[in-house]
Design goal:
272 residues, rod-shaped, four-stranded mixed β-sheet, alpha+beta
């Protein structure tokens, strides 16, 4: 290191450091790397441009200093070295001015993204109501369970109660009753006195009555079954989960609907 105790009087129009000014880009690139350093500035007279070594000392690290005389574009770092704002941003690891930040790149959501996220959810107070043939339901604060409303033992026993015979025979029409006595002495009688029938006629009437009862019983059971299954739904019916729900399926087994809760990352994104 050379220490000077007085000023230097320059007697030449050339710079003291012969690296600071060259004629061509080729001369600039031929400066030995052994005498280069980060921040070295070189003016190329043929180009009328000044260059600086940024982030390295190879030829690929030469950066043109544009509008170097505009003080508004110059900043001073902690070492009092004059640098351009672009250089300072690069040294500090910042993105260049043309980089566009999106909500996804910074881990948050835009207003539109938040609205889209909320539109795919439903309010917890929404209630799932069940209709005929189903039991269960409830609001969406918790899982919703829907089951088939199967016929109870009591309902089935009601088909076979003590009044069944009376109810079945009441289904018979007047013509059904007249047909029982065709070919007997009561065929055209306005009053049916069964004791007046012969043994053989009684057997015929009983057989006809048994056949009629069997037909009427089938009709009665069919009507009752239709009444019972009328409010039921087909097991192949498919319950489909809409927005804000997961689950569903056919009614061949229990169907469960659950809230499609927002994930932790979704909630964090909304709260950022």
């Amino acid at each position: 290191m050379i220490k000077l105790l007085d000023n230097i009087e320059i007697q030449t129009a050339l710079p003291l450091d012969n690296r600071s000014k060259v004629k061509t880009l080729s001369e600039r690139d031929n400066i030995p790397q052994t005498v280069r350093y980060l921040g070295l500035e070189v003016y190329v007279s043929d180009e009328k441009k000044k260059y600086r070594l940024i982030e390295g000392i190879t030829n690929s690290h030469w950066v043109e200093l544009k509008n170097i005389n505009k003080l508004s574009e110059l900043e001073t770092d902690d070492s009092n070295m004059t640098v351009t704002k672009i250089e300072k941003d690069k040294w500090n690891g910042k993105a260049d001015a043309n980089h566009t930040h999106t909500a996804s790149s910074i881990g948050s959501y835009t207003k539109e993204e938040t609205n889209n996220l909320l539109n795919n959810k439903v309010d917890k107070v929404i209630s799932i109501n069940v209709g005929n043939g189903l039991i269960g339901g409830g609001n969406l604060e918790s899982n919703v369970l829907i089951n088939m409303d199967y016929a109870s033992s009591l309902e089935i026993e009601e088909l076979l109660n003590d009044n069944l015979i009376k109810e079945v025979l009441e289904l018979a029409t007047e013509q059904d009753i007249r047909n029982l006595f065709v070919g007997t002495k009561l065929e055209s009688s306005p009053v049916y006195n069964l004791s007046s029938l012969s043994t053989d006629e009684s057997k015929v009437v009983n057989m006809r009555l048994l056949s009629l009862f069997n037909d009427l019983l089938l009709q009665r059971v069919k009507d009752n079954v239709n009444v019972m299954i009328g409010p039921k739904v087909d097991s192949s019916l498919n319950l489909i989960a809409g927005k804000g729900l997961v689950g569903g399926g056919t009614l061949e087994s229990n169907v469960t609907f659950s809230l499609d809760y927002a994930t932790t990352s979704e909630i964090e994104g909304i709260l950022k």
